[in-house]
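Continuing the series of single-chain predictions for the mutant panel. This is the parent chain; the variants come on the following pages.
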Amino acid sequence: MTKNILILLACGLPLCAAGAKVFDVTDMGATGNGATLDTAAINKAIEAANAAGGGTVHFPAGTYLAGSIHLKSSVTLFLDQGSTILASDDPAAYDEAEPNQWDKLQDYGHSHFRNSLIWGENLNNVAIVGTGRIWGKGLVRSQRAPEPGKRQVGNKSIALKQCRNVTIRDISILMGGWFAILATGDDNVTIDNVKIDTNRDGMDIISCRNVHISNCSVNSPFDDGICLKSDYSLGFARADENITITNSQVTGYDAGTFLDGTYQRTATYGRNKAEGPTGRLKFGTESNGGYKNITISNVVFDYCRGLALETVDGGMLEDVTIDNVTMRDIWNSPIFLRLGERMRAPEGTPVGALRRVNISNFVVYNADPRFASIISGVPGHDIEDVKLSNIRIYYKGGGTREQAALNPPEEEKGYPEPRMFGEMPAYGFFLRHIKDIQFNNVEVSVMKEDLRPAFVLDQVRGAEFQNVKAQQAAGVPTFSLKDVEGFTLRLSPGLPDTQLTSVKQRSF
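Parent structure:
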């Protein structure tokens, strides 16, 4: 059996593709010794594959020190078992960040793509596959615009802009820089069985359509694990649309300890250790293009923050289903939905909307006692049509009567994060500026006595609670209502069926 056929089989390609060409980077002069810069040889192999009408660029076992690798259409990078692409720490090895007239509307890292270890723009039919590794050792985890005449080290492992038919499968990424995977404006993207253990963002899927993420593990203690965004870096608003995420895991273990199997838990992020690690699955914060038609299922959260759905820059977040999620050791709100008006978008962009969201079959254990789960719009802009069902959350508890008396600030223009409101007056759910929300078979409890209500509703229109259970300290109400219309409670143990047309303030 020829070498080409062996590689094709390893890539999962059928024997009928045996006529396809394989280009070995060592045949182009790559040393794989981890000390000699192999960028030129790698790019030569990619160019040859592209010129041949397509093919596979093969990285046999070895360590390939590289700067900017230029991915091209109809090319697959195949990282064989034992191979590593190692990011150089030499600024001269990287392409300069290209100009972007819109870079003030999102973070610098979102606005530039060529200052990366592997990058491509306007490509078709590309893949990065195999059981090898990308090690972003020389990449930086943040960056600002360089001084004139100065080069910078790259800050992303993989950056793909406006590409079509993209596959990333089976690889591992260690210490991926600001973004291990940054996909912006891409269509038809499959990311499968990828393991990321990094020091900033795992994968950011920005303004993409038809994306399927499956069987992935992302450990990212210092930023988000799997993050959907929709910024303005393309010069126009474009939604994240038709996306599935399934059978995956997000964690906040110490960076590097997921891939080495030690799973250490000392990492914290922020100004104090109380903020814990990040590591979560999130929509936001860049959100002027919005999110449409998204399904998330079978996801595990461990030692990280909770699920966050945010639209604060004018985009529509709508038609989202999230099902079958387990969480353990969660450092802030297990569930956080935020419609805000930060408006990091072109002047005149109106406030967006957050509506038609179904969240079901959640089990959460050992959740942060300070923040509850939060669903909050802003004055004049309600979150609409949210359904929560079959949810069980164990909070740490310990809340005080002083916390129960708190009135969280609106923070309409604030950066969306549960801590933006401070500690919560509820231990279970805090609901504000909402139209039409349903709870069915939802149970909240605490591991230490808590003197706050389980549910606080403030300026809510249309709230239905059925078969709701809440552990409650003696003399402490389960519900606290303020400016609520159309409230219904039924079939909930220990609580009388209740229907209220309008209530200014009431607790029971």
